[in-house]
Amino acid sequence: LDLNMVTERKVEDNHRQDSADLLIFIMLLTLTILTIWLFKHRRFRFLHETGLAMIYGVLVGVVLRYGIHVPRDISNVTLSCHVNASPPTLLVNVSGKFYEYTLKGEISASEISDVQDNEMLRKVTFDPEVFFNILLPPIIFHAGYSLKRRHFFRNMGSILAYAFLGTVISCFIIGLLMYGCVTLMKQVGQLDGDFFFTDCLLFGAIVSATDPVTVLAIFNELQVDVDLYALLFGESVLNDAVAVVLSSSIVSYQPEGDNSHTFEVMAMLKSFGMFLGVFSGSFALGVATGVMTALISFFTKLRDFQLLETALFFLMSWSTFLMAEACGFTGVVAVLFCGITQAHYTFNNLSPESQDRTKQLFELLNFLAENFIFSYMGLALFTFQNHIFNPTFIVGAFLAVFLGRAANIYPLSFLLNLGRRNKISSNFQHMMMFAGLRGAMTFALSIRDTATYARQMMFTTTLLIVFFTVWVCGGGTTQMLSCQHIRMTEGSERRSTKHESAWLFRIWYNFDHNYLKPILTHSGPPLTVTMPACCGPLARCLTSPQAYENECQLKDDDSDLILTDGDISLTYGDITVSTDASGAHISAGPAGTTSAVISADDLDRELTYGDHELVMRGTRLVLPMDDSEPPLADPRHRMRM
Amino acid sequence: LDLNMVTERKVEDNHRQDSADLLIFIMLLTLTILTIWLFKHRRFRFLHETGLAMIYGVLVGVVLRYGIHVPRDISNVTLSCHVNASPPTLLVNVSGKFYEYTLKGEISASEISDVQDNEMLRKVTFDPEVFFNILLPPIIFHAGYSLKRRHFFRNMGSILAYAFLGTVISCFIIGLLMYGCVTLMKQVGQLDGDFFFTDCLLFGAIVSATDPVTVLAIFNELQVDVDLYALLFGESVLNDAVAVVLSSSIVSYQPEGDNSHTFEVMAMLKSFGMFLGVFSGSFALGVATGVMTALISFFTKLRDFQLLETALFFLMSWSTFLMAEACGFTGVVAVLFCGITQAHYTFNNLSPESQDRTKQLFELLNFLAENFIFSYMGLALFTFQNHIFNPTFIVGAFLAVFLGRAANIYPLSFLLNLGRRNKISSNFQHMMMFAGLRGAMTFALSIRDTATYARQMMFTTTLLIVFFTVWVCGGGTTQMLSCQHIRMTEGSERRSTKHESAWLFRIWYNFDHNYLKPILTHSGPPLTVTMPACCGPLARCLTSPQAYENECQLKDDDSDLILTDGDISLTYGDITVSTDASGAHISAGPAGTTSAVISADDLDRELTYGDHELVMRGTRLVLPMDDSEPPLADPRHRMRM
User: Fold this and answer.
1) Which residues on neighbouring strands pair with residue B577, listed in sequence order?
2) Which of B4, B88, B90 sits opposite A14 (nearest CB)?
3) Of A609, B253, B332, B413, which sits most exposed with the smallest number of CB within 10 A?
4) What is the ipTM of this complex?
5) What is the pLDDT of residues B36-86, one digit of tens each?
6) Is the CB of A93 less than 8 angstroms away from the CB of B85?
């Protein structure tokens, strides 16, 4: 009986302690919010909220580490039971009563003393999986859901290049440089433990995930060039996904022999295969769930009940994450592509109130989760008990990161500029180089496993890299912008863009506009028109009545084009009626190549000047595009041809 | 090395399994949402969403119990280590590697076989504390935040009577009846284990928490009499709080002797003291946090940044819960009073967008949490492995619950009607009797501890009671309403209410209107007027500039009155200017008792006819109230006196 009560009291004390710990974080966040308000109120732009959250985390960490000392709880017992394996659940017989224990994880020998050490510090340390299961998903989903799709798709080729090729290049360059550094350290005798090439590569993957949230916030506020914004944002969003899967593949590198760190082609190919498999699987799952939500909202009248609609949206998005995790894929990657798909299709089917509600909900979740992670980062500087500060490694890492970023940006930009019509200017490249901040994803990846000497050193160094980039690079953004003479786009004068990814983009656009959007949303053109005659019945079934009737369809805040097809017969080069922003109808008859040019330029114009509501009927995208047109002065004049 | 990987894989498998389990619930909820939409679409009113969620839970439970069988995981090991105590953390030495295990709780001997039994069922079973820490707080907070304050305060006396006295009465009546039943069972030999009086009392406390969410939803839809709505809603919201603290006090009953089930006055007083202490402490904490949030939103211009405002609101409300739990009070009670306070003060300080955002956020959380709990209830019928179906006990329990509710409603209504001017009619009483549904709180309280035979029997019976009341009573509400001839209040004709709690209410109202609201919100009258002259500087500091300037203050959707003081000199019986709903100014000069009557009637009228925006200046509430006035026909005519 005594033991029973003692146990209950211990469990309750644990609970009270956990509540108190969580309360510390809530207080941190509250303080951060109030200070952010103060900064905004006084237009103080040198410290973004994430940098601020980190500072507060550091302060609290100092207090917890040096100010408060909770004495040892010597009742922690080490059982020396000799078992064959470590079961997930353990039943311990204590004088006739049974107690259930669940497996938390492995502890390295060095941590054992910590287990009995400063209890306070151990308490405010979260299980690393909390980041991947609870905190990162809302952040990544919000990034996908709030993607500025027009600019994203316009620069799709470059973004994909930076995100995939660039991250891999960065990873290997950093890995190689670190390997050199580590070998040097071993020679000099500064290395106290093992540090293999796979560890270096892992470090490279971890630290290649950029998170320029600070910079982008400033870009947004100052209305910096949208292309630069799109490139940076798109790259960061995708390279998080790539970095996660890359790091998993590197960790899973498992050669046949006894020594798990020799190079074996088969093992490498297996890791590579795993990368492809996990990435595609997560991508497919994310898109599938997004599509399913779009279909559900398309076929039901859920828009009459905003609470149900919002709840469904939230649940479907969350289920993506769980499904991916249950299938062994990566939840955050799935959630990213789900967010993009939801923004592209489902969003259009929601009622206006639900559009606001979902946006606000995920905005709030993103805000809270992000500031939580950054506070925790600051805290971890002092509460993590296995830091390994190795100056040589740290200096080497900073250098490697700098060079890795340079090897990512400059060569790729050069190659891309060969193909782009709208070149990425060199000051853009410098800005992108500068804006390679590291943040939440890097931290989460590095804290995931801190069992070995190598991982602990990596964690410490990563933390310092994050601090430096967020505080120094983030804080210096405004200066850098003026230094690089990057224009603010306040006015309406924009470049006429014959966008570089025209070919790739247009293939995608045709397919999306003519088939995917009509199936998944209420936009035109009706499928009965675009689909081959044999699929007639199916097309009639899948087409929304609104696709036939409504002209003013789908005004996305952010959509690419607003095209509806009212006339059934569409032919190459056919233009019928078009409406300019003021609502006046302008007719233009069919005219061979001129109309081809007009339509492409209309597409172009709409992409450039998002504010004009350009509704065109009966026009298909026409290929190939004639690019001998002079630059536009006033879009409306062109339309009246 | 092998063991390391095996452990990692086990931990990962655990994770995948957890994701899959959570996915089952998400799917359940999604299905529920779609079916709810279908029901609303076809106006099917016999099954509310909570009843529906339970049905789906039952179906899935059947599938999991009989359809899927996951073989034993024999790697669960029982260690027979002889330790003196059960430490919170256990380090197990497995061939040189250390594994950390955390204490989950005690397992009774009967459960041991279950630990190795159907793994699937164990997996979809949540730790009961999940309900109190994650699911119930949003539900309870939302109940407090969405309280219709006007009707609540108007019927405050009755509601408090039902909630406190009524719950205690119900608890003891049920406890006594069950004790009789159990003694009978013991005589007959049907009782296989111990069942003490404290267990009976606990059962009474648990089952006294009503949750008429179904009934209230129907009331809302059919626009049933607002007083009945207020009584039922207010009672349910408060008696949840009372039931939680009552059950904790009963559980903590600890007499000195060896036998923990003898009656000892000291122990009983101690329990009673604990009840008072925990309840008041939670109340104080909840109100304090609400007030603090109101002050923060009052003194800062946070309303310019809706995201920050909403985030702060959310965090402060959440911190109430954590603070209460950390201090050893009851989080859900604190959160309830925090919600009420936030709705009464902070809400007025928020920007309109944030008002919407916070309402929608908590509405969504409430919706998800509630349906989750009800689904889980249905599931638990089949996944809980220690059900004890004892027909005698079940029948006895149903009877006891029925009689307990009757002993709660009818005597108290009789007593209250002695004091109320607006009597609670007998058909209202019958309706309240009928609408005593049990729900989330009852379930959570009963599942909290299912270690002993008594508790398991109580859990099974509670589950059946919840099923019955939700499906049968909830489904039959519409019939009952017509059967009792309870009017729908569609039109504008309402009773003139000289409300029964006039005295209590007016004391509160004066204090609130003249002091609390001006301190915490931007409403008038300015404190410089209402506070004594000596506090002048303090009053000037605390008064918002808007209290002086704005006439049209604080249009709460739901506020009691809209009174502003423009004129500084207020005297007893002074009426200056009043504006009726159409905006015309009506002047009335000071006139002794007549004005006293008018002002009280104006108060009255505003309380009755919430739609009219009655702005009165320079009027204080006047006591005592003359109730010889004839019933009103048209409020505007009265005003023009």
Assistant:
1) B587
2) B88
3) A609
4) 0.80
5) 888 888 877 778 888 899 999 999 999 888 877 666 554 555 555 555 566
6) no
